[in-house]
Amino acid sequence: MQKIIVIAGPTAVGKTDLSLQLAKKFDGEIISGDSMQIYRHLDIGTAKATKAEQDQVPHHLIDLLEPTENFSVAQFVRKAQENIHEIASRGKIPIIVGGTGFYLQALLGDRPLAPVDDVQIEPDFITAWEQQVAQFGENPLREALAKVDLVSAERILPGQIRRMIRALAISQTKGQPFSSLQPQPKRQYDAYIIGLDTDRQVLYDRINQRVDHMLTLGLMDEVAMVSELPDAATAKKAIGYKELFPVLDQSETLEQGVAELKQASRRYAKRQLTWFRNQFNDINWYDLVKNPAQLDEIETDIQNFMA
């Protein structure tokens, strides 16, 4: 089974820095496991590796699509599998880096792809239901889903609107419950999973500082570009952009928008950590913010894993 390294963790915890260090140390190449870094032009708000960083080590699954294009988890898995095979064939180590846990889980095989993962959902269907939710709340959507897939309606957490819409669309398209189409999990790779974390307040301070730095880099220009995308575009829902839309139309001050962005980013980091802890029982946790010397420990652990 192909050995790979996975670096997971919340936003602003230091995944990019570690990935560069490990890629240089172990002659690896980096595959982005972030659902938004696949899009061109979204550089600052997605905390994409800079051109200088990408020049140091080959990067994959970055800047492949325009922000108006859709990108499913099934497409991610296929492309990542191709990259892993190509990297390994060159005698290099594939290093997957990202905070989109759902993508990482699907790639590893812990959440295997169902025969419905390539179903294309009409943007109008998504937009119509999102408008319904905005006006009436999510109960009508959940009730509609329960009529065709009670298991998914009970399983999907509050606030996961896109997941409910997808489950509803697939259930209607296939004529059977989305939940009944899920295959059993089976690991596809021998993965050493590194989890990065640190004290909560320290992480929150880093997130706040990152947002401030993004603004100095020109984040508002990206926000203006994203605001012009069609409402159904996935990029338009991304944290880092939507919180600042009210600043553009002057319904909020920049200070208010930045405060909302920081809060949304902190909440997202908390959800990321909860997800990783609940979904990966073989993750190896390290705190490089509090203890940078743990880098030596990580390198030793990887050497033992690769042996």
UniProtKB/TrEMBL annotation:
It comes from the Bacteria. The record marks 100 as: Interaction with substrate tRNA. Substrate binds at residues 11-16. GO terms for molecular function: ATP binding; tRNA dimethylallyltransferase activity. InterPro entries: Dimethylallyltransferase, IPT, P-loop_NTPase. Its cofactor is Mg(2+). ATP binds at residues 9-16. GO terms for biological process: tRNA modification. Pfam families: IPPT. Keywords: ATP-binding, Magnesium, Nucleotide-binding, Transferase, tRNA processing. It catalyses: adenosine(37) in tRNA + dimethylallyl diphosphate = N(6)-dimethylallyladenosine(37) in tRNA + diphosphate. Transmembrane segments: none annotated. Catalyzes the transfer of a dimethylallyl group onto the adenine at position 37 in tRNAs that read codons beginning with uridine, leading to the formation of N6-(dimethylallyl)adenosine (i(6)A). Monomer. PANTHER family: TRNA DIMETHYLALLYLTRANSFERASE (PTHR11088:SF60). This is tRNA dimethylallyltransferase. The lineage of its organism: Bacteria, Bacillati, Bacillota, Bacilli, Lactobacillales.
